[in-house]
Structures are given as C-alpha cells and as structure tokens.
Design a protein that fits this description.
alpha+beta; about 325 residues; 12-stranded antiparallel beta sheet; about 40% strand
Length: about 325
Amino acid sequence: MRRKASLILLALAVFFAALSPLMRWYAFPRLAKIPAGQYQDMVLEAKDATLLDYGTMKAKKVDKVTIVQTLKGNVEASERIEKTAGRDVVVWDGLSYVQGPDGKMVSKIPERYIFDAHTQEPVHATGEMVDGDPVKREGIEFKWPFLTEKRDYEYFDAQARITAPIHYEGEQDFRGVNVYYFEQTIPWTKVPFPQIMPVEGITPESVAKTGTTRWYTTVRKFWVEPTTGAPVYGEEIHKEELRGGTLLGGREKVTAFAGHVKMREDYIRSTVDLVKSQRLLVLLMTSYLPWGFLVLGAGLLSLSLYLEARSRRPGDPSPTPTREPEPVGA
C-alpha cells in the first residue's frame, strides 16, 4: 500500500515540477496580453504655460493648458487585421485634445496605433496613422513590454513622426511602487501643422503658403512599473514655435506653446491603483505559481521517497509459534 502511494506522489511531483517552467515560459507569453477592447483616458495639465493667441499672433502667459488623452480599443479593426497578420493584434484609436484656460480647443490630434497584444511590437497595417498621415511606427508607444528590462528602448514620437531612443535612467520608488525611470529628448524638429487648426478659416495649406513653419522639442519622462510594463506617471517639458514667413509679421519666431506637462493628481492615484492590481496577475504567472509548483513538486518528491523507503524496510521478526507439549509415552 505504501509503495502504491509513493508512486502516485512521484507522478504528481513530476507533473508539478514540469508545470513550473511551462507556466513561466510557455503559458505566460501566450496568456499575458492587452485586451482588444480596452479603453483608457488620462488628463494632463501644464500650469503657468505660454500659449499663442492666434488673434494677435502673440504669445501670452496662461494659468493652465489641459491635455486630454484617450485610447480606445477598436475590436472590429483588430479582428480584421488578425486574419492576415496571423497573431493577436490590438488597435488603439487615440486622441490628444489640447484646450486653453477658456476651454477652447488648441489642437486635436487623432492617431491609430496597431501593435502585437503580447509583445507590444508595432504591427504595420492599413490605417496606421497620426493626424491622417500614414506612418510606419518602429519601437513602442504608450506602453512598455511585460517584464520591462533595465535598458534603453526605441520610442515613437507622434508629433515628429520619428523613432528615437528612450533611455533607462535608474530604479526608483514611486508612491510605494518600484518603477524604472525612462527619459527621451527630442531636439528641435520641424513638424506638420495639425489638420484641425484652432482658428476657423485657417488650414495647414493656407499657413504653408505664408512660409511659416512649426517646430517642436520635448523632454519626455516616464516612470514604468516593470512587471506590467505600464507607466504609472509621466511628464513632458514641451515647447512649440512658429518660425519665419509672413504670418509672423517679420518676426523670426514666436512661441506657440511652452509648458511643463504633468498628470493630474486624481489620474495619478487611479493609475497607481490599477497598475498594482494588474501587477498581481502578472506575478501569479511569472513568479508565484511557477515557484509554488516547484516547491510543491519538491515536497511531493520527498514524501514519495520517504514512503518508498518505508516500504522497503525489513519488517519485525514473526513470533515463534507456541507448541503444545507432547504426551510422554508409557
């Protein structure tokens, strides 16, 4: 009976020992993915910013500029692209909406971001664009891969339509969450005018005829939770200028927007809470369950060997039977 039990325990030990690496290296890469229908929004603010008054074409100080960013998963588009891509695809329809202190629109930039649901690598397909312009992204945008590494990544800048390194700058604690800090600098670069301008009657084409160009630079900062690859906080030191042309009335350049853009406090709190809950799910597949299965397998193996040893131990000697005394012959 002991030997039968030891064989069952041995089989279970082998099963859990084999399940441990399978959970980490086979199941996790296939199960961990971004949901196709995910929706998220974020509000950022630049206080004491500089903003161009298109009525006077002069820059002025304002109390606050607000940027609302939304990302909406397009399930129908992702399913259509998956048929030819041969892998799980996420399509995010994004919108960056900037408004001044009076609530009026400053700029409105839509974009479509298509990427692999598991690795976050870009997937090139019809419809990939920024503000109506077809683009071919290289590198990541918005989110880092699961299990982010301590290294530089290539990050796509939607304003300039270019990819540039975003540098790993060290490990930090952000409100109780261990994060990796990344920073990217985009030098002054000539960029397109938005398709939708803040003043009625002005179009990118009409501005181009004046010879005026738009330039942009930014220092982009992200604090990324490495297990999920999700940023818990972000900032940008953002500057835009209009240069040359008759639109500026002979001036060489004028500031269109300058400000230190930061996430609003309520969105920081909700993002940190969300990332903490997602982190637990990823850790279950990458650490807790694989190590738990390995420890359980080792324990079952030890118990199996113990029962096997007990079954092979010699038993106690059998008692000598008592013989009845034989009668003495006459």
